[in-house]
Specification:
By secondary structure, the chain is of the alpha+beta class. It has helices at about 10-25, 140-145, 160-165, 170-175, 185-195, 210-230, 240-245, 280, and strands at about 30-35, 55-60, 65-70, 75-80, 85-90, 105-115, 115-125, 130-135, 265-270, 270-275. It holds the Pfam family Fapy_DNA_glyco.
């Protein structure tokens, strides 16, 4: 994903798996090309072991993609910070001609299908964050086994949210992004959720009032589910742009808050920066920003 949008998060990954499932189901994998060996996480079952299998469908687990193939196997792909997918080969969607060649992310692993079309997984980061596992069950991947409840799941209820958030002596933004607490949310959507809920990103979860918790629950479920609906059907090569365009505060530094008109500001969070509105979220307080 582009810098403004941050790493892939559940709404875009959900749209991706729905596209993959619809487009690839029933087709056979005829060849696999691992361009970057470090993406292979199951050495005894490399991606090449899937040659000759047929795609059965695709599903999302947090920010992970799981492609089900014949013989009850799954190709699990962790998109990491900047990973994504694109189609190549016969009938592919060619890269936009106005995109400089240096800005087109490299393919790290490619799966050729029986009609010549190619599913490529890319990574645009300075280090390899894309990862591939071949497993019998997606929960064999440690990060998936540890996932917390997913706010996009129809069965997600307030009790799930309370177990993840209430009483935590940790900044609420960190809790929202902690995959073991709530699955699928990253830097961008946590900014959007907190802004909509009018909650400071640096407030400790344990210090939130009942009213703030109510607003945060409604915002978390509402934004994730509504955004998944909004992304559904968008071509996978347009999902990054759709994400960036829909942001109200994330990536909008120095722009006017769409709610109150105050200036949206950056603050330092973990190893990156995030955005917030002082008037809507922090009572006018300016959060610290590390000097570059």
């Amino acid at each position: 994903m582009c810098n403004a949008g941050g790493m892939p998060e559940s709404p875009e990954v959900q749209a991706l798996v729905e596209d993959l499932g619809a487009r690839l189901a029933g087709r056979e994998i005829s060849d696999v090309d691992v361009v970057e060996f470090r993406v292979t996480k199951t050495r005894d079952r490399p991606p090449s072991s899937l040659v000759g299998t047929r795609v059965r469908g695709a599903s999302r687990h947090g920010k992970h993609v799981a492609i089900a193939v014949s013989d009850a196997q799954h190709l699990v792909v962790s998109l990491g910070r900047h990973g994504w997918a694109r189609y190549g080969g016969v009938g592919s969607d060619a890269p936009a001609t106005d995109v400089p060649a240096g800005d087109i992310p490299p393919t790290l692993v490619a799966f050729t299908l029986d009609d010549g079309e190619v599913l490529e997984f890319t990574d645009a980061g300075d280090w390899v964050s894309l990862g591939c596992w071949v497993v019998d069950d997606p929960t064999e991947v440690p990060a998936i086994a540890k996932l917390g409840p997913d706010p996009a799941n129809p069965g997600f209820v307030r009790a799930d949210f309370d177990r993840a958030v209430t009483g935590r002596r940790k900044q609420v933004k960190a809790v929202l992004q902690e995959q073991e607490s709530l699955a699928g949310i990253g830097n961008a959507y946590s900014d959007e959720i907190l802004h909509t809920a009018k909650v400071s990103p640096v407030a400790h979860a344990a210090a939130l009032t009942l009213d703030e918790l109510d607003r945060l629950f409604d915002s978390t479920v509402g934004i994730i589910t509504e955004t998944i609906d909004a992304r559904r059907g968008v071509p996978i090569d347009g999902l990054k742009a759709a994400k960036v365009a829909a942001m109200r505060v994330h990536g909008r530094t120095d722009e006017a808050c769409p709610v109150c008109g105050d200036t949206i500001r950056d603050f330092s969070f973990a190893s990156t920066t995030a955005q917030y509105c002082p008037t809507c979220q922090t009572g006018g307080a300016i959060l610290p920003l590390r000097s570059s």
